[in-house]
Predict the structure of K+ transporter Trk.
Amino acid sequence: MIAIGTLLLMVPAASTGTSLGVIDALFMSTSASCVTGLSVLDISHGLTRYGQFVILVLIQFGGLGILTISTLVLMMVRKRPTLSGQALIKDTFTYGEGKQTASAVLKAIFVTAFCIEAAGALGLYLRMAPETGWGRAAYPAVFHAVSAFCNAGFSLYSDSFVGYREDWAVNAILSVLIIVGGIGFIVIADVKKRFMERKTVVRRLSLHSRVALTASAVLILVGAAAILVMEWNNTLAPLSVPGRIMAALFQSITARTAGFNTLDIGIMANETLFFLCILMFIGACPGSCGGGVKTTTVFGLWVLGISRLRGYTHPQVFRRTLTEASISKATSVVMVSMAVITLAIMVLMMSELGGFSHTQTRGRFLELFFEALSAFGTVGLSTGVTETLSEMGRITIVALMFIGRLGPMVIALAVSRERISRVHYAEENIMIG
Amino acid sequence: MIAIGTLLLMVPAASTGTSLGVIDALFMSTSASCVTGLSVLDISHGLTRYGQFVILVLIQFGGLGILTISTLVLMMVRKRPTLSGQALIKDTFTYGEGKQTASAVLKAIFVTAFCIEAAGALGLYLRMAPETGWGRAAYPAVFHAVSAFCNAGFSLYSDSFVGYREDWAVNAILSVLIIVGGIGFIVIADVKKRFMERKTVVRRLSLHSRVALTASAVLILVGAAAILVMEWNNTLAPLSVPGRIMAALFQSITARTAGFNTLDIGIMANETLFFLCILMFIGACPGSCGGGVKTTTVFGLWVLGISRLRGYTHPQVFRRTLTEASISKATSVVMVSMAVITLAIMVLMMSELGGFSHTQTRGRFLELFFEALSAFGTVGLSTGVTETLSEMGRITIVALMFIGRLGPMVIALAVSRERISRVHYAEENIMIG
Ligand SMILES: [K+]
Ligand SMILES: [K+]
């Protein structure tokens, strides 16, 4: 898909200026397919309507593809589900028949995604149409609804949504699309089931859904509060107080994967950029269009840390014990991700900062660090360095987007294999701390 | 001890210029007691011989104190040791009598430390004396031997050991002192026992010792190779090829806690600084004078990640299975440490970069990031920003040195309590990746 996208974007009709080179077309195609949203050019002016349409199609198929694959992978992994795990799958996917098939899941995902995107597009259309005219409003409404639900972060405006930063309706519609697109299909199905059930006994949500919803809510609120404090006198300064709260909230929501922005990332304070890096690393929920190491991964490790600090042997949360398998997976995903990012950052620094004295280029460290985390988390926020990257730098970012897209899932899948060691070695402590 | 040191350093006789203020004296006293080595002033010129002597005493007692406490804590923790764990303690500390007491351990530590420091001081004295005269060489030889063994990183030269960067003897003596001081007393005792035994059956080293020795060796060699590549045309450029290898090796050895330098940290490449940050975070081995989250912690998580990726349920290394308790501790230590460092970095950025536009101060991000990790890992390397820190920044660094010194140990200790949960909740998976 990336290859086809690359070819389609290299056609002269795709760009307004000269045709895109291989690396730039590859970059844009990967960025769209992986729903990242980083751009080596301004798609609002640099690409023709045809080129933008290619991007839109890549986003839509990339987003749905990752949604489907990750959902199926998560279902496959649970070969030996616990009691409540089994209940979850049955409740979620059987829809009464008693047997869930891949094609049924596929259909459910496509129908859900289409309905949500259509509703979002309609909302945006109704909001925009009075200003831009009923005919011209349709295309951006559809583009942005798809881009938001798929957490792609591509925008037809060169400043993303800075122009709409005080528009409550646009902010609200985009936020809902982003959150729903990033929470994961399994959670959506679980919640839907929960509220549509007419049984007398109220079924509780699965542990996974509760963890995903709680983690997302906490991250959004804490993120917004932190951004509010750190940017109050900086990028938030020109806004009214409710406007500041809205902008901080929007930035907190989009930073974990969507990648839209209503504030100027390039002039944000260092501490805010560093904080956004952490949000970008965490990312969205598993089984969604979002990237990062995933909210549940970080939540699991956090619960483990806190439980152990309180002296409990097993990680407990919401009156459940997390399985050792979940914790091991989480540790592997985080460790490998950190190693990959570290390597990529070093490559980027060597490829981008070669020719200058190191004390002069200190400032670019944070920008490249930010860029690498944005690519890995398929977020797409940037301080503006994307267009200035060298060829080596662009290739590194392409690799990082690709690894960030599939890596955590592949690692979790690999970790799920159960290989019985022929020899069981004696246990022995090592000293820690 | 920190308080007494602060008072002693505030006396006018301690400094060559005006007396130190409370915060500066507190900073220096904490830095010395925690064997960190960060300085708000150049101790070679800013402090009198008396002031330097106070620093020396603080280093010696701080280093021995942390060595003793951490060794005793590690021994205490093993209330329910595994079979081979029990063997280790008995073999290591009983010295034939059959019962180890805290005072016996204390004595063994003091004797070992004194012998090693005396040997190091003698070596340095013999090397230096022909140049500086037999009388004047004694004081720096003792100071630097103590500073190296305690991994303190204080030097009587304003450029640390840059002047000796091509001196094989000085490099070798300091390196050995640093490595022995950072490997941990338990490992020293274990190795000593291994080679002094006259039994016909050769006893293997404990898993802990093998992990500690392997991790240290790998980190030193990989670190040196990385520094060699990244700094070849930069700070290493003026040296001969063997000189470059020696300098890279020395920098790799000192970065994980000692904090001496023979290269100019301030003009290093961004990628090198970032890489050194990782080494500083990892730190030395538990039960030593060194800081950081500890080599065995990172090694344990690495083994878990690799074992799980290969499909094994349990983390296996050297024909042993790591206990779940070790892994849980390691996860807690790393998670909490990262949270503390993140918080400190944000405070530092807010306290230090307040008055300037953010695009102008981008460059200071990496320097403050480096400074925070250096303080947390009680390393003492600096790009040179220590002296320019605001009061708030100095207090943050003091707090970070203190937390970095005791934190990992306290966390590991807290995690070791075993509290039996009254209710055992059902296990349930969450989805990861
Ligand atoms: K995105
Ligand atoms: K040190």
Q: What stands out?
A: The beta strands of chain B are 316-317, 320-322, 427-428. Chain B touches chain A through 104 residues (CB under 8 Å).
